[in-house]
Design brief:
- The chain has 6 helices and 7 strands; from the N terminus they run H-H-E-H-E-E-H-E-H-E-E-E-H.
- By secondary structure, the chain is an alpha+beta fold.
- The longest helix is centred in the N-terminal third of the chain and has 41 residues.
- It is elongated and about 85 Å long.
């Protein structure tokens, strides 16, 4: 899907460049020798250019819609997944040991090994830092219980995040850079942020970040009620980091 999106964009840029070059040549020829034939060609070219640009815009819009649909489906398949960061690697680690550790740290006594359907490290082993642990819960309710208890991990060096798609991860990283790490969080794969004016908004794509950065043309969605970031008991306002 990414390749298709890039191909459409490249074709659009190529057509635009070629038509601009032809337009310059046509304008130059008309100035040197203005004739009825040149005028007719110019009119036909304008009609052709408008038709091509219209088709390319429609095609690009459809590709973006397909991309979002595919991303939504992939994110839906990750609803029961969580990523555990900062856990030191050991040779004898297994789902039981991970579940036991989470049960103690998160104060979730009901969490056991059979609550996990998958549990393994992601990526190639490195000496610099431990790889994240990918966890898939059997029930979404258990995942929500763990997610809502993650404030207990504060100060342990261990963090939890949602298993976002590549596209959403990139948007989330850009939002954190724009609004600050403590002002961005995720919930069920959706990205939220607190804007400089203190208003909470949902970030759907990069355009929302750019729009929120402009005081004149804010485009981030703010009308619908949004999930609130979790707060520590000792602080009045501290949105959770999602990833």
């Amino acid at each position: 899907m990414e390749d298709l999106k890039k191909t459409v964009l490249n074709v659009s840029e190529m057509f635009t460049t070629k038509m601009e070059q032809f337009q310059q040549r046509l304008d130059k020829a008309s100035k040197v020798s203005p004739t009825e034939s040149n005028t007719s060609i110019a009119m036909e070219f304008e009609a052709f250019k408008s038709s091509i640009l219209f088709c390319l815009q429609n095609l690009q819009t459809q590709v973006e819609m397909l991309f979002r649909m595919q991303d939504d489906l992939e994110m839906r398949s990750r609803r029961k997944f969580l990523l555990l960061h900062g856990v030191n690697e050991s040779k004898d680690e297994n789902p039981t040991s991970v579940a036991k550790m989470l049960s103690v740290l998160l104060k979730c006594p009901d969490l056991a090994a059979d609550s996990l359907s998958r549990c393994h490290r992601l990526g190639t082993r490195r000496d610099t830092k431990p790889r994240p642990v990918l966890i898939k819960l059997r029930q979404h309710q258990v995942k929500e219980q763990i997610w809502s208890s993650k404030t207990h991990l504060k100060g342990t060096g261990i963090t939890l995040s949602e298993f976002l798609t590549k596209g959403r991860h990139n948007i989330f990283m850009a939002a954190r850079k724009q609004f600050g790490v403590s002002n961005c969080w995720t919930r069920d794969g959706n990205i939220y942020a607190i804007r400089p004016d203190g208003e909470r908004c949902r970030i759907n794509d990069m355009k929302d970040i750019i729009g929120s950065a402009s005081e004149d043309e804010p485009t981030a969605t703010t009308s619908a009620p949004l999930p609130q970031p979790q707060k520590d008991k000792g602080r009045k306002k501290a949105p959770n980091k999602g990833q």
